[in-house]
Write a structure and sequence with these properties.
Length: 119
């Protein structure tokens, strides 16, 4: 269905472009029907399909496949390289000293004292 984006979901539509029945009856009726020429026309004039419609049009061969997303393994080890906030690229930490306390200098480092038991 082609509809104006400013109209309500169940409101006025411009043109019916097909149908989709996710649960066909026991009679084995058709699940999907599209008017390919009209779908291609609306896409050519700038119509933007919703995500579910985009998947249907991909299965029908009207649209190219969606781009793949590169994702890391779920639960795997994480890359702990810091990212530069302006460029978004990983920082090279060769020769950089990481300090836990930014106010401490190298000469201020003290060894922890041994605990003593006083009776």
């Amino acid at each position: 269905m082609a509809a104006d984006s400013r109209s309500p979901r169940d409101g006025k539509h411009l043109e019916v472009l097909g149908y989709y029945n996710p649960l066909p009856g026991k009679d084995g009726g058709k699940r999907m029907g599209l008017k390919f020429d009209r779908v291609k026309y609306w896409l050519s004039v700038g119509a933007q399909p919703s995500d579910p419609v985009q998947r249907i049009l991909f299965r029908a061969g009207v649209l190219p496949p969606p781009p793949l997303l590169a994702m890391g393994r779920k639960g795997g080890h994480r890359d702990r390289n810091p990212i530069h906030p302006m460029t978004g690229r990983p920082l090279d930490l060769e020769g950089v000293t990481i300090v836990d306390d930014p106010n401490a200098t190298e000469g201020d480092a003290e060894e922890p004292a041994e605990p003593s038991l006083e009776a």
